[in-house]
Specification:
By secondary structure, this protein is an alpha+beta fold. The chain has 3 domains: 81 residues, Winged helix-like DNA-binding domain superfamily/Winged helix DNA-binding domain (Arc Repressor Mutant, subunit A); 97 residues, D-Maltodextrin-Binding Protein, domain 2 (3-Layer(aba) Sandwich); 97 residues, D-Maltodextrin-Binding Protein, domain 2 (3-Layer(aba) Sandwich). Helix content is 40%, strand content 23%. It has 11 helices and 14 strands. The strands form 4 sheets. A 5-stranded mixed beta sheet has the order 4-3-5-14-6, covered by helices on one side. A 4-stranded mixed beta sheet has the order 8-11-7-12. It has a 3-stranded antiparallel beta sheet with strand order 10-9-13, with no helix packed on it. A hairpin with a 2-residue loop joins strand 9 and strand 10. The radius of gyration is 24 Å and the shape is elongated.
Protein backbone atom coordinates (compact mmCIF):
# COMPACT_ATOMS: atom_id res chain seq x y z
CA UNK A 1 0.00 0.00 0.00
CA UNK A 2 1.28 3.49 -0.91
CA UNK A 3 2.26 5.63 2.09
CA UNK A 4 2.63 9.31 1.18
CA UNK A 5 4.56 9.95 4.40
CA UNK A 6 7.32 7.65 3.17
CA UNK A 7 7.39 9.65 -0.06
CA UNK A 8 7.74 12.87 1.91
CA UNK A 9 10.57 11.39 3.98
CA UNK A 10 12.44 10.30 0.85
CA UNK A 11 11.93 13.72 -0.77
CA UNK A 12 13.33 15.45 2.32
CA UNK A 13 16.35 13.11 2.40
CA UNK A 14 17.03 13.88 -1.27
CA UNK A 15 16.57 17.61 -0.62
CA UNK A 16 18.80 17.85 2.45
CA UNK A 17 21.33 15.13 1.64
CA UNK A 18 21.00 13.68 5.13
CA UNK A 19 18.74 11.16 6.82
CA UNK A 20 19.21 12.83 10.21
CA UNK A 21 18.34 16.31 8.85
CA UNK A 22 15.25 14.93 7.13
CA UNK A 23 14.22 13.11 10.30
CA UNK A 24 14.60 16.33 12.29
CA UNK A 25 12.36 18.34 9.97
CA UNK A 26 9.66 15.65 10.15
CA UNK A 27 9.87 15.05 13.89
CA UNK A 28 11.19 11.49 13.56
CA UNK A 29 14.05 9.69 15.24
CA UNK A 30 16.96 8.79 12.98
CA UNK A 31 16.47 5.02 13.49
CA UNK A 32 12.79 5.35 12.56
CA UNK A 33 13.62 7.38 9.44
CA UNK A 34 16.22 4.82 8.39
CA UNK A 35 13.74 1.99 8.96
CA UNK A 36 11.07 3.70 6.88
CA UNK A 37 13.53 4.39 4.05
CA UNK A 38 14.58 0.73 4.06
CA UNK A 39 10.89 -0.26 4.00
CA UNK A 40 10.29 1.98 0.98
CA UNK A 41 13.28 0.52 -0.88
CA UNK A 42 12.12 -3.00 -0.08
CA UNK A 43 8.63 -2.28 -1.34
CA UNK A 44 10.00 -0.79 -4.58
CA UNK A 45 12.59 -3.53 -4.98
CA UNK A 46 15.45 -1.13 -5.68
CA UNK A 47 18.07 0.94 -3.87
CA UNK A 48 17.28 4.66 -3.87
CA UNK A 49 20.40 6.05 -2.19
CA UNK A 50 24.00 5.02 -1.67
CA UNK A 51 25.03 5.57 1.93
CA UNK A 52 28.45 6.49 3.27
CA UNK A 53 29.74 7.76 6.59
CA UNK A 54 29.85 11.33 5.27
CA UNK A 55 26.87 11.78 2.96
CA UNK A 56 24.27 10.11 0.84
CA UNK A 57 24.06 10.10 -2.94
CA UNK A 58 20.97 9.29 -4.96
CA UNK A 59 21.23 6.33 -7.29
CA UNK A 60 20.12 6.85 -10.90
CA UNK A 61 16.84 5.16 -10.03
CA UNK A 62 16.59 7.26 -6.87
CA UNK A 63 17.04 10.52 -8.79
CA UNK A 64 14.28 9.58 -11.23
CA UNK A 65 12.00 8.51 -8.39
CA UNK A 66 12.75 11.77 -6.52
CA UNK A 67 11.45 13.82 -9.47
CA UNK A 68 8.25 11.75 -9.63
CA UNK A 69 7.74 11.95 -5.86
CA UNK A 70 8.15 15.73 -5.80
CA UNK A 71 5.50 16.04 -8.53
CA UNK A 72 3.13 13.76 -6.57
CA UNK A 73 3.59 15.71 -3.33
CA UNK A 74 3.08 19.03 -5.15
CA UNK A 75 -0.17 17.72 -6.61
CA UNK A 76 -1.37 16.59 -3.17
CA UNK A 77 -0.52 19.98 -1.68
CA UNK A 78 -2.37 21.85 -4.42
CA UNK A 79 -5.40 19.59 -4.06
CA UNK A 80 -5.53 20.22 -0.32
CA UNK A 81 -5.19 23.97 -0.82
CA UNK A 82 -8.02 24.01 -3.35
CA UNK A 83 -10.23 22.02 -1.02
CA UNK A 84 -9.49 24.26 1.96
CA UNK A 85 -9.79 27.44 -0.05
CA UNK A 86 -6.34 28.60 1.04
CA UNK A 87 -5.43 29.64 -2.48
CA UNK A 88 -7.33 32.83 -1.61
CA UNK A 89 -7.15 32.87 2.19
CA UNK A 90 -3.54 32.47 3.21
CA UNK A 91 -2.63 31.94 6.85
CA UNK A 92 0.19 30.76 9.06
CA UNK A 93 3.73 31.90 9.92
CA UNK A 94 6.34 33.15 7.46
CA UNK A 95 9.81 33.66 8.93
CA UNK A 96 11.97 35.97 6.82
CA UNK A 97 15.57 37.11 7.16
CA UNK A 98 17.26 39.94 5.24
CA UNK A 99 20.49 41.96 5.35
CA UNK A 100 20.17 44.83 7.81
CA UNK A 101 20.37 47.81 5.48
CA UNK A 102 18.51 46.27 2.53
CA UNK A 103 15.77 44.98 4.80
CA UNK A 104 15.34 48.35 6.47
CA UNK A 105 15.24 50.27 3.17
CA UNK A 106 13.57 47.91 0.73
CA UNK A 107 11.63 45.25 2.65
CA UNK A 108 10.23 46.69 5.88
CA UNK A 109 8.49 49.71 4.26
CA UNK A 110 6.51 47.40 1.97
CA UNK A 111 5.18 44.83 4.43
CA UNK A 112 1.86 46.62 4.97
CA UNK A 113 0.42 45.99 1.46
CA UNK A 114 1.19 42.29 1.79
CA UNK A 115 -0.43 42.02 5.22
CA UNK A 116 -3.42 44.08 4.06
CA UNK A 117 -3.97 41.51 1.31
CA UNK A 118 -3.24 38.50 3.57
CA UNK A 119 -4.17 39.40 7.15
CA UNK A 120 -4.04 35.75 8.23
CA UNK A 121 -0.30 35.52 7.60
CA UNK A 122 1.94 35.87 10.66
CA UNK A 123 5.15 37.57 9.46
CA UNK A 124 8.44 37.55 11.35
CA UNK A 125 11.27 39.65 9.89
CA UNK A 126 14.83 39.35 11.21
CA UNK A 127 17.48 41.78 9.95
CA UNK A 128 21.08 40.62 10.26
CA UNK A 129 24.29 40.75 8.26
CA UNK A 130 25.39 37.44 9.77
CA UNK A 131 25.07 34.17 7.85
CA UNK A 132 21.68 32.57 8.43
CA UNK A 133 21.33 28.78 8.30
CA UNK A 134 17.78 28.36 7.03
CA UNK A 135 17.38 24.84 8.37
CA UNK A 136 18.99 25.38 11.77
CA UNK A 137 17.42 28.81 12.35
CA UNK A 138 13.97 27.79 11.12
CA UNK A 139 13.82 30.50 8.41
CA UNK A 140 11.30 30.07 5.59
CA UNK A 141 12.79 32.67 3.26
CA UNK A 142 16.06 34.61 3.25
CA UNK A 143 16.80 37.68 1.16
CA UNK A 144 20.46 37.41 0.20
CA UNK A 145 22.83 39.50 -1.88
CA UNK A 146 25.26 36.94 -3.19
CA UNK A 147 26.28 34.64 -6.00
CA UNK A 148 24.50 31.38 -6.83
CA UNK A 149 23.50 29.49 -3.66
CA UNK A 150 24.44 25.89 -2.80
CA UNK A 151 22.43 23.06 -4.31
CA UNK A 152 20.34 22.61 -1.16
CA UNK A 153 18.75 26.04 -1.70
CA UNK A 154 16.37 27.30 -4.36
CA UNK A 155 17.07 30.88 -5.53
CA UNK A 156 14.53 33.36 -6.87
CA UNK A 157 16.41 36.31 -8.41
CA UNK A 158 14.62 39.53 -7.49
CA UNK A 159 16.95 42.12 -9.02
CA UNK A 160 20.56 42.64 -10.10
CA UNK A 161 22.90 44.19 -7.56
CA UNK A 162 24.84 46.90 -9.39
CA UNK A 163 27.77 48.28 -7.37
CA UNK A 164 29.69 51.48 -8.10
CA UNK A 165 32.72 53.28 -6.69
CA UNK A 166 31.86 56.52 -4.94
CA UNK A 167 33.08 59.15 -2.47
CA UNK A 168 31.87 62.34 -0.85
CA UNK A 169 32.64 65.65 -2.61
CA UNK A 170 34.52 66.83 0.48
CA UNK A 171 36.87 63.82 0.29
CA UNK A 172 37.55 64.38 -3.43
CA UNK A 173 38.15 68.08 -2.84
CA UNK A 174 40.76 67.26 -0.18
CA UNK A 175 42.44 64.28 -1.88
CA UNK A 176 41.71 64.65 -5.59
CA UNK A 177 39.68 62.43 -7.90
CA UNK A 178 41.27 59.15 -9.06
CA UNK A 179 41.50 59.03 -12.86
CA UNK A 180 42.65 55.41 -13.18
CA UNK A 181 42.37 52.31 -11.05
CA UNK A 182 46.10 52.61 -10.34
CA UNK A 183 45.42 56.03 -8.79
CA UNK A 184 43.09 54.34 -6.32
CA UNK A 185 46.08 52.81 -4.54
CA UNK A 186 46.93 56.31 -3.31
CA UNK A 187 43.47 56.85 -1.81
CA UNK A 188 41.79 55.86 1.43
CA UNK A 189 39.33 53.01 0.93
CA UNK A 190 36.36 51.82 2.93
CA UNK A 191 35.02 48.27 3.28
CA UNK A 192 33.45 46.03 5.89
CA UNK A 193 34.85 42.67 6.95
CA UNK A 194 34.51 40.15 4.14
CA UNK A 195 34.26 42.84 1.44
CA UNK A 196 37.93 42.74 0.40
CA UNK A 197 39.16 42.33 -2.22
CA UNK A 198 36.81 44.33 -4.41
CA UNK A 199 36.01 42.24 -7.47
CA UNK A 200 35.69 44.76 -10.26
CA UNK A 201 34.82 44.71 -13.94
CA UNK A 202 36.02 47.36 -16.39
CA UNK A 203 38.10 48.18 -19.48
CA UNK A 204 40.83 45.73 -18.48
CA UNK A 205 38.38 42.91 -17.77
CA UNK A 206 37.77 41.45 -14.33
CA UNK A 207 40.23 41.91 -11.49
CA UNK A 208 40.52 41.87 -7.71
CA UNK A 209 41.51 45.09 -5.94
CA UNK A 210 42.88 44.63 -2.43
CA UNK A 211 41.35 47.04 0.06
CA UNK A 212 43.07 48.30 3.20
CA UNK A 213 40.14 49.94 5.00
CA UNK A 214 40.64 53.07 7.05
CA UNK A 215 38.48 51.60 9.82
CA UNK A 216 37.79 47.91 10.43
CA UNK A 217 34.08 47.24 10.90
CA UNK A 218 31.62 44.39 10.53
CA UNK A 219 28.85 46.77 9.44
CA UNK A 220 28.11 47.68 5.84
CA UNK A 221 25.95 50.54 7.11
CA UNK A 222 28.97 51.99 8.91
CA UNK A 223 30.89 51.94 5.62
CA UNK A 224 28.15 54.00 3.99
CA UNK A 225 28.20 56.52 6.85
CA UNK A 226 32.00 56.82 6.63
CA UNK A 227 31.75 57.45 2.89
CA UNK A 228 29.19 60.21 3.53
CA UNK A 229 31.52 61.68 6.17
CA UNK A 230 34.27 62.06 3.59
CA UNK A 231 36.58 59.34 4.90
CA UNK A 232 37.38 57.58 1.62
CA UNK A 233 36.26 55.74 -1.50
CA UNK A 234 33.72 52.92 -1.16
CA UNK A 235 32.20 50.26 -3.40
CA UNK A 236 28.48 50.53 -2.76
CA UNK A 237 25.30 49.02 -4.16
CA UNK A 238 22.97 51.39 -5.98
CA UNK A 239 20.07 50.31 -3.79
CA UNK A 240 22.06 51.69 -0.82
CA UNK A 241 23.35 55.01 -2.19
CA UNK A 242 21.06 56.04 -5.07
CA UNK A 243 19.43 58.79 -2.99
CA UNK A 244 22.84 60.09 -1.88
CA UNK A 245 24.07 60.17 -5.47
CA UNK A 246 20.94 62.01 -6.60
CA UNK A 247 21.32 64.57 -3.79
CA UNK A 248 25.04 65.09 -4.45
CA UNK A 249 26.11 63.76 -1.04
CA UNK A 250 28.15 61.13 -2.88
CA UNK A 251 29.77 61.26 -6.32
CA UNK A 252 30.60 58.34 -8.55
CA UNK A 253 34.30 57.90 -9.39
CA UNK A 254 36.02 55.74 -12.01
CA UNK A 255 32.81 55.38 -14.00
CA UNK A 256 34.34 52.72 -16.24
CA UNK A 257 34.65 50.34 -13.30
CA UNK A 258 31.93 48.66 -11.25
CA UNK A 259 31.38 45.58 -9.14
CA UNK A 260 31.64 42.34 -11.05
CA UNK A 261 28.38 40.86 -12.30
CA UNK A 262 26.98 37.66 -10.83
CA UNK A 263 26.00 39.09 -7.45
CA UNK A 264 22.22 39.32 -7.31
CA UNK A 265 19.48 40.15 -4.85
CA UNK A 266 17.71 36.85 -4.27
CA UNK A 267 15.01 35.25 -2.19
CA UNK A 268 16.24 31.79 -1.23
CA UNK A 269 14.60 28.88 0.53
CA UNK A 270 15.30 25.23 1.16
CA UNK A 271 14.51 22.93 -1.72
CA UNK A 272 11.30 21.27 -0.64
CA UNK A 273 8.75 18.96 -2.24
CA UNK A 274 6.21 21.71 -1.68
CA UNK A 275 6.48 25.32 -0.59
CA UNK A 276 3.61 26.81 1.45
CA UNK A 277 1.49 29.19 -0.58
CA UNK A 278 2.01 31.95 2.00
CA UNK A 279 5.77 31.79 1.29
CA UNK A 280 5.39 31.79 -2.50
CA UNK A 281 2.95 34.70 -2.13
CA UNK A 282 5.60 36.73 -0.31
CA UNK A 283 8.19 35.90 -2.98
CA UNK A 284 5.71 37.14 -5.61
CA UNK A 285 5.19 40.31 -3.53
CA UNK A 286 8.95 41.01 -3.55
CA UNK A 287 9.16 40.36 -7.29
CA UNK A 288 6.46 42.93 -7.95
CA UNK A 289 8.36 45.50 -5.86
CA UNK A 290 11.55 45.20 -7.91
CA UNK A 291 10.25 44.43 -11.42
CA UNK A 292 10.45 45.31 -14.24
CA UNK A 293 13.18 47.59 -12.90
CA UNK A 294 14.06 48.15 -9.24
CA UNK A 295 13.28 51.68 -7.98
CA UNK A 296 16.93 52.41 -7.18
CA UNK A 297 17.84 52.02 -10.87
Amino acid sequence: MIDATDYELFARIAELGSISAAANTLGLSVPMASKRLARLEARLGTRLINRSTRRIVLTTTGAQFRDDVVAILDAIQQAEERLAGTMQRLSGPVRISAPTSFGRLHVAPYLKPFLDAHPGVDLELTLTDAFVDLLQDGVDLAVRIAGPPPAALQANVLAPNRRILCAAPAYLHAHGTPETLKDLHQHKTLAAQGQSPWRLSGPDGNLAFDVKPVVRTNSSEVVREMALAGMGVALRSLWDVNADLAAGRLVRVLDAWQGMAGIDIMAVHLRRPELPRRVTAFIDHLRRLYHPAPPWE
